[in-house]
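FIELD: query
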Amino acid sequence: PSAAFDIILLDPPFDRDLLTPACRLLDSGNWLAQHARIYLEANQNWIVDLPLSW
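FIELD: result
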C-alpha cells in the first residue's frame, strides 16, 4: 500500500478459516502503522495463532 493503516477490521467468513492467514499477511507486508489497532471478529472456537510481533 502507499501508506500503512492505523485501524484494521477483520471479519472474514468463519467457515473458511481465513483469520489466521489474513493476520499473517498483514504482519508480513507494510500494511500496519507502528501503533496500529487490529480488531478481529472470530468464531468462539477459533484457536488464537497471532503473529508474535502483535
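FIELD: remark
The two ends are 20 Å apart (CA to CA).
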